Automatic annotation (TrEMBL):
This is Ig-like domain-containing protein. Its main location: membrane. It comes from Catharus ustulatus (Russet-backed thrush). SMART domains: IG, IGc2. It is a single-pass type I membrane protein. It comes from the Eukaryota.
Length: 371
C-alpha cells in the first residue's frame, strides 16, 4: 500500500511540474531553438522577460531585425502591446508583467522575423511565493580577506535613470545600516561593497527596490546566495550552472544546456571547459545530434566566466540513460559536475502503470485508482 502511494505521488508530481516542452514550429518559421534560459521570479513583483540573442551553431538571432512576437505555452494567440488595464504586454524585445502571478508560470516563445528568415526562442518562467525566495537565489562568489562587492542583478529595465537607483540591503533578513564600517551602500549603484570579505560573510543577502508605475508602487526583490572562497583557491574553476542534478525534457524536443564556469580573476584562456557523455568526448559518442556549442567568454561584475552549451537537436530515449558531465580544468585544479536528462512526467504513462500495478495486485481496492 505504501509503495503504491509513493508511485501515485511520483507520477502526479511528474505530470504537473514545470518542464521543458517541445514547441512546434509555426507554419512559416524555419528554425526553433529551445534556449535553456530560466527566469525564477517572485509572485506579485514586476518582471521583464527578454528575448535572447544566442549565437549557437549556425543560429545568430542578433542579425535579425527587431520584429518580435510573443506566445505562451504553444498557444496561437499572440501577446499584444499594452492595452488599458492589461497586466501582461509585449514591448520591443521584452515581455512585461505588472505584476507577475503564480499562474504566469510556463514556457514563452518569442519569434523573430525578417523578410526571409524566422527563428523562435523558448524561455522558461517559474513564479514562486515570496517565502521561497532563497530557493531561487542568485549565486555569487567572493574571495576572503580582500575587498569585494555583491551586485543586485536584473534591475536596469526598471531604472531608466540609473543615477536614481536606491536599494535597501539585508543580510539574513537583518537590515544593513549605512554606518556599518564593513559594508558600503552606494546611492545610484546596484553594488554592496565589502571592505574585507570574511568567511562568515557567506550567506543570503537581499536587495529591495521600489518601482513606481502609473501611480502604483511595486517592490522588486533579489536574493543572493554568497559563497566565500579562500584566496589561494582563486584560480581553480568553479562550476556555477547547471545547479540542478537533473534536467527535464520531452522526447523529440530541442534543448540547450549551458555549463557556466566561474574563473575569478584568472584569464579565460587558462581554463578549459568541455562536456562528456559517459566519461567520453561528446564528439565520439554523438556524431551530429548532440554537440558542444560555441565557447563564450563572459565578464560579469569584473569577474571572468566561461560558458559552453550542450545542444540537443532532438532528445532521444538513449539520452535519459546517459551520464552527462561538465568538466572545467586548468593547471591549478579542476571541477566536475554530473547531470542527467530526465523524461517529462506523463499522465498517460502513469495511468498505464496504475492499471498494470492493479492487475498485478488484485487484493487492492479499485477506489485507490480514482484520480
Amino acid at each position: 500500500m505504501h509503495g503504491l502511494f509513493f508511485v501515485l505521488v511520483t507520477c502526479t508530481v511528474g505530470a504537473s511540474a514545470f518542464r521543458l516542452q517541445q514547441v512546434k514550429n509555426t507554419e512559416n518559421c524555419s528554425d526553433h531553438r529551445g534556449f535553456f534560459k530560466h527566469y525564477y521570479e517572485l509572485h506579485g513583483e514586476p518582471v521583464v522577460l527578454k528575448c535572447p540573442s544566442p549565437r549557437y551553431k549556425h543560429l545568430d538571432f542578433s542579425a535579425l531585425t527587431p520584429n518580435i512576437t510573443w506566445y505562451k505555452n504553444g498557444s496561437n494567440t499572440m501577446i499584444s502591446g499594452r492595452d488599458e488595464g492589461s497586466r501582461i504586454w509585449a514591448k520591443g524585445n521584452a515581455l512585461w508583467f505588472l505584476p507577475v502571478m503564480l499562474e504566469d508560470s510556463g514556457v514563452y516563445t518569442c519569434t523573430k522575423r525578417n523578410s526571409s528568415y524566422c527563428a523562435e526562442v523558448s524561455i522558461h518562467l517559474t513564479v514562486v511565493e515570496k517565502t521561497a525566495a532563497r530557493e531561487i537565489a542568485y549565486p555569487q562568489v567572493l574571495f576572503t580577506f580582500t575587498a569585494g562587492k555583491i551586485v543586485c542583478p536584473d534591475l536596469w529595465d526598471f531604472t531608466p535613470n540609473r543615477t536614481s537607483l536606491e536599494l535597501k540591503w539585508y543580510k539574513d533578513t537583518l537590515p544593513l545600516e549605512d554606518d556599518n564600517e564593513r559594508f558600503i551602500i552606494l546611492n545610484g549603484s546596484a553594488s554592496l561593497i565589502m571592505t574585507s570579505v570574511l568567511p562568515t560573510d557567506a550567506g543570503y543577502y537581499t536587495c529591495k527596490m521600489s518601482f513606481p508605475f502609473e501611480g502604483v508602487a511595486y517592490e522588486i526583490t533579489r536574493t543572493i546566495q554568497l559563497e566565500t572562497v579562500e584566496q589561494e583557491k582563486r584560480i581553480i574553476p568553479i562550476i556555477v550552472y547547471p545547479a540542478q542534478k537533473t534536467t527535464s525534457a520531452a522526447l523529440g524536443s530541442q534543448m540547450t544546456l549551458p555549463c557556466k564556469v566561474f574563473v575569478g580573476l584568472s584569464s579565460h584562456f587558462q581554463t578549459d571547459v568541455e562536456w562528456l557523455a559517459n566519461d567520453t568526448s561528446i564528439d565520439m559518442v554523438y556524431k551530429q545530434r548532440v554537440t558542444e556549442g560555441e565557447r563564450q567568454e563572459i565578464v560579469e561584475n569584473g569577474e571572468n566566466f566561461i560558458e559552453v552549451p550542450l545542444i540537443f537537436d532532438s532528445v532521444e530515449e538513449v539520452d535519459f540513460y546517459t551520464d552527462f558531465t561538465c568538466v572545467a580544468r586548468n593547471t591549478y585544479g579542476y571541477q566536475v559536475l554530473p547531470t542527467r536528462v530526465k523524461q517529462e512526467g506523463s499522465y498517460f504513462y502513469c495511468l498505464i502503470f496504475y492499471i498494470f500495478y492493479y492487475y498485478s495486485n488484485p487484493k487492492l481496492s479499485p477506489d485507490l485508482f480514482i484520480l
